[in-house]
Design a protein that fits this description.
CATH architecture of the largest domain: 3-Layer(bba) Sandwich
Structural class: alpha/beta
Order of helices and strands: EHEEHEHEEEEEHHH
CATH superfamily of the largest domain: FAD/NAD(P)-binding domain
Helix content: 25-40%
CATH topology of the largest domain: FAD/NAD(P)-binding domain
Bound molecules: flavin-adenine dinucleotide
Number of strands: 9
Strand order of the largest sheet: 5-2-1-9
Length: 198
């Protein structure tokens, strides 16, 4: 009698687990993800700064696992795991399991300061990346019309509110990439500084 493995999440962890079970004998896998695509999160910065388009960093999970005869991919939001009945409960049904792997990723946090979110939104999904991109490009457009030299420092405006290790990385990426976006959208402006500031 085969075993049924339910994997929740098609991110790095869930996808790699599924790949490890591809065509494994006596094992059927159901991979559930709230979204139908695997997202390469490390390139979200580039989408947020208009260097890449969303389709360049996302791929349908089903297409990635198309060669796996024993894996079924379903787009469902998991809401509960009923341990006593060995059931994964989703927004559209239940899945019995012999083994369950929860690979749901993580959420951003503001250490009790949720009011910061509107100034420093999360960057874990394509929706968040395109929302940031909209704000960055709108800032460049506003800067184009701005008379004050101080306020013209759009790249610095973009950098505000990022802290910690992730923040430093993001500041580096965004400083560099906002230069490219600024150069592309406002080619005559030179106040954005050198390409690789250290
Ligand atoms: C902007 C950014 C840059 C990064 N840069 C780097 C880097 O340079 N190097 C590096 O090593 N790491 C980097 N990381 C970290 C790395 O991307 C994460 O550690 C990795 O994606 C985590 O993988 P995961 O599978 O645990 O979660 P995720 O990749 O987040 O996948 C979780 C999956 O679970 C799904 N899911 C969540 N909840 C549910 C639910 N209730 N029901 C169904 N599905 C659900 C989600 O839709 C998602 O597909 C970066 C992350 C970010 C956000």
């Amino acid at each position: 009698m085969g075993k049924h493995v339910v994997i929740v999440g098609g991110g790095f962890a869930g996808l790699n687990a599924a790949k490890g079970l591809v065509n494994a004998p006596e094992i059927d896998v159901t991979l559930l993800d709230a979204r139908n695509h695997h997202l390469f999160q490390p390139l979200l910065y580039q989408v947020a700064t208009a260097g890449l388009s969303p389709a360049e960093i996302a791929a349908p999970i089903r297409a990635i696992l198309t060669y796996a005869r024993n894996i079924r991919v379903l787009q469902e939001q998991v809401v509960d795991v009923d341990l006593s009945r060995r059931m994964v409960v989703s927004d559209s049904g239940e899945h019995s399991y012999d083994y369950v792997l929860l690979a749901c990723g993580s959420k951003h946090a503001y250490f009790g300061h949720d009011a910061w979110e509107m100034h420093a939104p999360g960057l874990k999904t394509l929706e968040q990346a395109t929302a940031i991109r909209r704000r960055v490009l709108t800032a460049f457009e506003e800067a184009e019309k701005e008379a004050s030299p101080e306020r013209k420092r759009v790249a610095d405006l973009c950098d505000r509110g990022w802290g910690g290790d992730g923040g430093r990385t993001r500041r580096g990426h965004r400083r560099d990439e906002s230069f490219h976006a600024g150069e592309r959208f406002s080619p005559h402006r030179s106040h954005l500084g050198p390409r690789h500031p250290r």
